[in-house]
Amino acid sequence: MPDRFVRIALGVTLGLLIAFVAQPYILAFLYSADAPRSVTARGDLSAAEKTTVDLFARAAPSVVHVFAQAAAQGRALMEPDDEFGQGEQQQPGSGTQTGTGFVWDAAGHVVTNNHVVEAATKGGGSISVRLASGEVVGARVVGTAPSYDLAVLQLGRVAKMPPPLAVGTSADLKVGQSAFAIGNPFGLDHTLTTGVISALQRRLPTQEGRELSGVIQTDAAINPGNSGGPLLDSAGRLIGVNTAIFSPSGASAGIGFAVPVDVVNRVVPDLIKNGRVRNPGIGIIAGQEATAARLGIDGVVVLRVLPGSPAAQAGLRGVDPRTGDIGDVIVGANGRPVHRLSDLTAVVEEAGLDRPVTLLVERDGRVRTVRLNTADVAQTRL
After folding, report:
1. pLDDT of 70-128, one tens digit each?
2. What number of CA atoms fall less than 13 Å from residue 366's CA on the CB side?
3. Which end of the chain is more exposed for a tag (fewer CB within 10 A), N or C?
4. How far apart are alpha carbons 106 and 69 in whole angstroms?
5. Burial of 153: CB neighbours in 10 Å, binned 0-12, 13-18, 19+
6. Which one, of 248, 316, 254, lies nearest residue 282 by Cα?
């Protein structure tokens, strides 16, 4: 009896082992999908998905890929295309920078970042633009505004002019609202990234010693190659021009910055009309903020006053070049405290050209009120 029980147990165990080993082969024989599977209906897209899809369909045709060649280099044509290159970072040996732009008006003006086309502008190079249709056309620089990192290009003859982007406003933006960026990161055409507005009223250093105030911060992925591209709201309206990222690695870290559209809408018409932007200012060159802080000075030190400027006419005094004695320190403007240059710049830009500005100026320990009008002082820091 015990022998029979053992034989039965061994037989059952052997059978289970065989079944376990054979299971994958049996399943593959019985259930292999050796023909195309039927498609499962997904149903309608969600309302949010439909909004994003529609937004991209409307805006993408207006977004372009900008290629700036610093100088004519025949060898660059013999090198393979860098389809997955480094965006607007310069490609070694080619002198080429790439970025993004968008169509501003029906005349074919394209807005992009100044740093995208700067090398070509200064080096007598060439600029070409690839449209959403794939057509490549030449372009020329109409005007640049380094203080705002903006440039305007004029497209050459095109088969069909892309539509201009709808323009919104940055005055009523809220932290937390949706933001959409379209650009060409790492050379990948027409990439859409989404996120939210992370912060407002950021400050961003630009060229010519200025700081741009009111900058938009977003966590929508912005990488090299996105520069100059549009930042859109959920209605597909332009709310900013993507210009920079904060990242030790050079890739998106969720902190991107955009020039607010209200600044763009003021600067671009000037560039189209005059080839440069008229910067409202008072005609001073400010001292270094770090040096002022080390000296315990809270305000903008007037380093030098431009002859004939509003500041000169109002009697402002700079640092004495012989003794190094500090003259005037601007500590307030239009009823607001001034701690650094960007505080003063924000007030002056809000005032606009040929508008009155009231300054609080400290000299020799005494504070006095100075009233003057702004003027076009684009060649100076403020």
Report:
1. 765 554 444 444 433 344 544 444 467 889 999 999 999 999 999 898 888 876 778 89
2. 4
3. N
4. 26
5. buried
6. 316
Detail the DSSP E strand segments found in 178-322: 178-183, 191-205, 211-218, 230-232, 238-245, 256-260, 280-281, 284-286, 300-305
Of 44, 62, 105, 45, nearest to 236 by C-alpha is 62
Q: Which residues are catalytic?
A: 115, 149, 227
Contact 193, 220 (CB under 8 A): yes
C-alpha 120/C-alpha 201 separation (Å) is 31
In sequence order, what are the residues at sequence separation of 6 or more whose Cβ sits closer than 8 angstroms to the Cβ of residue 235? 55, 166, 168
Residues 347-371 pLDDT 10s: 888 888 888 999 888 888 888 888 9
Q: Which of 89, 71, 82, 51 is nearest to 226 (CA)?
A: 89
Q: What is the dihedral of CA 339, 342, 345, 351, to 10 degrees?
A: -80
